[in-house]
Amino acid sequence: MAFGIKKKKIQDILPHRTLTDPEELFCYGFDASSSEGRPLAVVKPVNASEVGQLAAFAHEHAISIVPRGAGTGMTGGAVPMKDVVVLSMEAMNRILEIDQHDMVAVVEPGVMNGYLQEKLEEKGLFYPPDPASMKFCTLGGNVAENAGGPRAIKYGVTRDYVLGLESVLSDGRILTTGGKTYKGVVGYDLTRLMVGSEGTLGIITKIILKVLPLPEEVATLLCTFTSMDDAARTVSKITSASIIPRTLEMMDRESIHAVEKYKAFGLPMDAEALLLIEVDGPVETVSKESERIASLCTSCNGSVRIAEDRYSKERLWEARRAISPALYKISPTKINEDIVVPRGSVPEMFGKLREISEKYDLPIPSFGHVGDGNIHVNVMTDKNNPDEYQRALDSIKEIFEATIRLGGTISGEHGVGITKKQYIGMDLDDTNIEIMKAVKNVFDPKGILNPGKIFP
Ligand SMILES: Cc1cc2nc3c(=O)[nH]c(=O)nc-3n(C[C@H](O)[C@H](O)[C@H](O)COP(=O)(O)OP(=O)(O)OC[C@H]3O[C@@H](n4cnc5c(N)ncnc54)[C@H](O)[C@@H]3O)c2cc1C
Q1: Phi/psi at 129 (nearest 5 deg)?
Q2: What spacing in Å lies between the alpha carbon of 129 and ligand 1's midpoint?
Q3: Domains in the chain and their CATH numbers?
Q4: 4 pLDDT higher than 90
Q5: Looking at CB atoms within 10 Å, which of 27, 91, 386, 423 has the fewest?
Q6: Which residues, in sequence order, are bridge partners of residue 107?
Q7: What is d(CA 154, CA 281) in angstroms, rounded to the nearest whole number?
Q8: What is the mean pLDDT of the chain?
Q9: CA-CA distance, 331 to 381, in Å (whole number)?
Q10: CA distances from 269 to 224, 258, 294 (A)
Q11: Is residue 95 exposed (0-12), middle (13-18) or buried (19+ Cβ within 10 Å)?
């Protein structure tokens, strides 16, 4: 079917929900990576049945579709390749149920993570996964990427909270997996298979999430160090001290300076590194654990400040969440990776990053969830300077090699998408890749769901 006819037919299915103006299509052509495309059309369905109609039509006429949440993905997952229809889930944005007896929340995929957190807190409930983008990313995108966040060190990632899903398959059939129960072992775990599948196996239309009681108390500590080695030593001491903090985040000197240039948060400019640590639980436990952590920090030459009220806590987190946009103060192009190494190898990895930064003569500010070994590594460069950009790409390869050598993995939470697909062979062996491709083929035999992603 010719390009124009495909567009017309798609429009005929849901005319009031389809965008085809070039200006509107432009807005759906990119995400938070530097990848870009232009969709054939954008459709905004409001329920699973509409998604099913579209998928069935696309399947029959071999038209590719890309599910999209809020487009905050870091690896190009929601970016349309050629001749693709974007299925934006933004209109499916209702919280369907918060059930305090079953301790579950049932949501549509377009609900913002931060909005659900707020609504749960009003009822004394808690949904731990907290990507730094939580105020502007969707839960559908979180499930599709298996998003994590600072609280993963204690509470795990999105996968650990998804009890059930409703997904539309590539031919329009609806697949319901799991449910409201906390257990269930009948057959293969298709719910878990869908989590992290980056929109390549199905379009998620309903999500059942496990929720927890809101912790009674949270303490937030800012620990400042004049040496990165001291900060790294503190991380090892805390993680081996039988305390599980709810966050253990690190910012290096370059990240601190970029954030302060972006907005004056009052972070210590003379620090080489800082740790943002939280503990939560019953008041007494929180008080004991925060004292213990403070003393571990001071024993490693750190100085400690405890945030006294909700405003100071929120301001520290605002500074932490500002790092990603702030880094553009250093250079116009950011190649962002989210490697993970075993926790004990974090100090060695930071040393390796310093060496690579010097070797390639490029700033590599690094920060992130060091408590679980997940480091956000940002190679700062300028895409319009071919020589420098090539050096940046070479440095990425070396960073990945060092990560794998230390027993780590090239992505902890951002997924593969477009930007990492050329590297998956460094992380996965042939048998893994063969089985994954076979699974993809069962779910999507015509290859119309989010083509060009994950596999090179
Ligand atoms: C400033 C900033 C900070 C960030 N911090 C973190 C962080 O701390 N932790 C973290 O994990 N990530 C982080 N991210 C990355 C990003 O926010 C997450 O990957 C998030 O889960 C993407 O959600 P989204 O709604 O924007 O999805 P999109 O970017 O729109 O899509 C992401 C992928 O999910 C698929 N998808 C979306 N909706 C559906 C659906 N309903 N069904 C099937 N597939 C779907 C898309 O096809 C695509 O492959 C950050 C991003 C930014 C910009």
Answers
A1: -60, 120
A2: 13
A3: 3-91 (3.30.43.10), 95-213 (3.30.465.10), 217-325 (3.30.70.2190), 330-427 (3.30.70.2740)
A4: no
A5: 386
A6: 95, 207
A7: 11
A8: 95
A9: 6
A10: 10, 10, 21
A11: middle
With a 6 A CB cut-off, is 138 part of the ligand 1 pocket? yes
Number of the ligand 1 atom closest to the C-alpha atom of 32? 53
> How far apart are alpha carbons 192 and 197 in whole angstroms?
9
303 to each of 275, 288, 347, 454, how far by Cα in Å?
Answer: 10, 18, 19, 43
Q: Which of 72, 107, 276, 376 to mutate to test the pocket of ligand 1 (most atoms within 8 A of CB)?
A: 72
| Strand order across the 84-88 sheet | 18-19, 41-43, 84-88, 64-68
Mean pLDDT score, 93-114: 98
DSSP structural state of residue 215:
P
Say yes or no to pLDDT of 215 above 90. yes
- The C-alpha atoms of residue 242 and residue 268 are separated, in whole angstroms, by 29
Indicate whether residue 72 lines ligand 1 (CB < 6 A). yes
Q: How far apart, in whole angstroms, are the C-alpha atoms of residue 38 and residue 187?
A: 40
pTM over 0.90: yes
- Residue-wise pLDDT for 121-166, tens only, equals 999 999 999 999 999 999 999 999 999 999 999 999 999 999 999 9
pLDDT at 2: 65
Q: Compute the Cα dihedral for 262, 267, 269, 273 and give only its sign.
A: negative
Could you read off the pLDDT of 39-58 as tens digits, one per residue? 999 999 999 999 999 999 99
> Would you say residue 436 has pLDDT above 80?
yes
pLDDT per position as a tens digit, 389-409? 999 999 999 999 999 999 999
Report how far residue 77's alpha carbon sits from residue 54's, in angstroms, rounded to the nearest whole number. 20
**Three-state secondary structure call for residue 42:** strand
Residue 301 CA to residue 63 CA, distance in Å, equals 60
